Structure formats: structure tokens, C-alpha cells
Amino acid sequence: VVWAGENYINHPDHRAASLAALDAVFPAAGQPHLFQEIEEEGFKAHKVRKVYVTAWENSDLFVNIEETIEVKIEALRAHKSQMGDWDPAEMIRKWAAERARGKEMAYAESFRVVTLIDDETWEKNRNNGHKPA
Predict the structure, then answer these.
(1) SS3 for 85?
(2) Cα angle vertex 78, ends 98, 66, to 5°?
(3) Does position 6 have pLDDT exceeding 70, yes or no?
(4) pLDDT at 78
(5) Domains along the chain?
């Protein structure tokens, strides 16, 4: 899910995709009667434990992307409809370095973790052989 922060409003398509993803995981994913045809195809409803929201401000999880930053840059370069001939490499490295500052890594992605089912409840249900409540 993409949300850049309080001082930036993301592209409309990114916001729409974010909302669709959130709607899909909560509460829809945990409702077995909502999409019965999916269960008929062999899929079972499940509860989503946590949602990781891309965040530049108020992040509480930082993921080291030192080994994958070049893949990210190449993917953006291939997005010609948005990038044209502009090379995003310098900007991406700068932003990733800012997120990693003070974190014992050169480049990071940052997230805000939204917990929908707390760790204690998750473990209790898992250890009892039940699906998470």
C-alpha cells in the first residue's frame, strides 16, 4: 500500500490502488460468505494480521534494500510513460539513503505497520489450531 506522508498527496492511481488493497484485506478477506464463489474454487477466507503501508513520515519498519535498489531503479527506468528519458537513479538513491540514515544500512524502504490482529491473539489462535479470530 502506498502513502507518501502528510506533506505529499500521491498520484490518483496510486491512491486508488492503495484503497483497493486495503478494502481487499480488511474486512473482506476474512469474510467467508462475502465471495462464496472463491471458496467453491478451493480458496479459503483468511484474516490479515498486519498491513505494511509505505511511509516517509512516522515509519516504524525499515527494510534494507541495498541488494535490490538497482532492480528498483531499472523498473522505474522501464516505466517510460512516466519517466520519459529522465533517469531516476540519483533521486531514488538519495531518498533510500535518507530513509536508511542511522539504521546500519545504506538504503532502506520505510513502512508504517498497521496491526489488525495483535501478536498475542494471533499466537493463541495459531497454537490452538484455529484460524485467527
Answers:
(1) coil
(2) 35
(3) no
(4) 94
(5) 12-127 (3.40.50.10320)
The torsion angles phi and psi of 63, rounded to 5 degrees, stand at -110, 125
pLDDT of 94: 97
The span from the CA of 64 to the CA of 79, in Å, is 23
Q: Are 105 and 98 in contact (CB under 8 A)?
A: no
User: In degrees rounded to 5, what are phi and psi of residue 50?
Assistant: -140, 150
| Cell numbers linked to 51 | 498491513
116 vs 70, which has greater pLDDT?
70
For 24-73, what is each residue's pLDDT tens digit? 887 777 788 887 888 889 888 888 889 998 877 789 999 999 999 999 99
* Cell 474454487 belongs to residue: 41
What pLDDT was estimated at residue 8? 60
| Residue spans of beta strands (DSSP E) within the chain | 50-54, 61-64, 108-115
The gap from C-alpha 64 to its chain's centroid, in whole angstroms, comes to 15
ω into 27 cis (within 30 of 0): yes
If you compute the radius of gyration of the chain from its CA atoms, what whole number of angstroms results? 18
DSSP 56: S
Closest to 56 measured CA to CA, from 119, 106, 88, 9: 9
